[in-house]
Amino acid sequence: MFSVLKKLGWFFHREKRRYVIGVFLLILCGVLELAPPRLLGSAIDDIVSGSITWPSLTKYILLIIGFLASIYLVTYIWMHKLFGASNLVERLLRSRFMSHLLRMTPPFFERNRTGDLMARATNDLRSVSQTVGFGMLTLTDSTAYLAVIFLAMSTLISWKLTLAAIIPLPFIALAMKIYGRIIHERYTLAQDAFGDMNDQVLESVAGVRVIRAYVQERNDEQRFTDITNDVYKKNLAVAKVDAFFEPTIRLCVGLSYAIGLTYGIYLVFHNELTLGDLVSFNMYLGMMIWPMFAIGELINIMQRGGASLDRVNETLDVNPDVQDVANPVVVEGPNTIEFKDVTFKYPTSTINNLEHIDVSIRRGETLGVVGRTGSGKSTLLKQLLHEYPTGSGDIKISDVPIENISLNQLHGWIGYVPQEQILFSKTVRQNIQFGLQDASDEVIMDAIRTAAFDQDLGTLSDGLDTLVGEKGVALSGGQKQRVSLARAFIADPDILILDDALSAVDARTESRIINNIRTQRSSKTTLISTHRLSAVEHADWIIVLEKGCIIEQGTHETLLESGGWYREQYERQQVESGLTDEEV
Q1: How many CB atoms are closer than 10 A to CB 527?
Q2: What is the pLDDT of residue 283?
Q3: Which of 213, 442, 458, 463 is the most buried (most CB within 10 A)?
Q4: DSSP string covering 223-275, please?
Q5: What is the pLDDT of residues 348-357, one digit of tens each?
Q6: Quick one: three-class SS letters along 7-52?
Q7: Tell me, what DSSP letter sits at residue 456?
């Protein structure tokens, strides 16, 4: 049960001063709380004996008020220390969790669902934070505070009456052990179900247009109803066990009261106990109710926190599929890019996705990558991002294997525009500035003109300050592509990768963007994959892929002369664009 505290030992060690002060003051508060009942018992004995006077009564009242004021002040401090730690550990773990996700590579996100990761970053981390805050309170109260009360009852009142009153306590311990084990199992299942629900909501919101287009609203509502019912049932299963804690403790506390009152009256009648002592004892017995409840809360909190921490650590313990080399080679710049007999297979694939790729690019050159859908164009370009473990063969930049280059330096050279554009729920300006922080409007407009988005900017309601909506929902496909292009252009990267990034723009706009790239990136490397061959006519070298293999390569002119797939596809596209064979 307490393994969760051991796993969080790093935090307790880091904040040991906070916890030493907090726990000490919590115990001190418990000691101070013993005084008012004892003073009240003494006052009752004085009243019974007839020795009470106004000065002594005033003394009792002032002492009780003084102790209550001290308890108030000490309680404020220990609550600030312990519950402040709860917020602190949640912030630390959430930051660590987010940093860990940002280091993860695509295979990790292929294996883990977004909704489940969100559940771990919210509900699970909140349960862990309760463990180091409220959990430490219940741990202290159910041990030290309970021991202090027990010591006061046995030494200040009667050890015989105390032993008789605590007879029901072992039954509480036994019940808590049984309930705790069941809570751990059921709470883990409930949190897994919550992750499934999160994932369902994310998919429904992201795909709402498709759902409506196929008139699947009712079916999606039913799926959501089913999954929420599953979450409800699993949380209800937790609540059913949780509901046993309080009645069990109340039953045992009631038995303690019955034993204490019955035996206490017997001792009073036999002059082994005064009436004031019996009143004080019953007040102490009432003070034991919370520590006994704290035992149940402690088991509950620790089991929930342990289950949640296990889920969080399960994610944090995953190492990136691609890690930085221990001693990276410092490369001045990407003067050459070379693929030498490269063969690659995705972790989830059963066949090679690239086979025996040989291609070389020098700084300032443009490489065009074309081929049928699924031929491996995107896979080839992504090799430069080094998101997956490299296969066989060598990928070198400036004659240095890519595995020996720091990931930060590698990614710092690259501007990447993927097939599916990712825009943030911010303004057009903020999305473009993602490529260059604090870029001025003049620099932003230069990037926008390069991406041929300047004419569209005037059609937006607030210009650069127009909110694009979640994932750019307020923009058309072509507009999203050009905002993504502007984001890459403003970074002015040494290597620009355009992965079918012009598919949603018309031929005239594409021609303008390509001319801008040729003019402004004459001294830098560009890689373009596309289905529209007009986008790579200007390329210094073009490769044609088929099932991960290079079946043709050369310049635009030599590929047309070879009469293979490239020429056939080019002529078909020219006809489709309304040009005659004579104009080709």
Answers
A1: 25
A2: 81
A3: 463
A4: HHHHHHHHHHHHHHHHHHHHHHHHHHHHHHHHHHHHHHHHHHHHHHHTTSS-H
A5: 888 899 999 9
A6: HCHHHHHHCHHHHHHHHHHHHHHHHHCCHHHHHHHHHHHHHHHCCC
A7: H
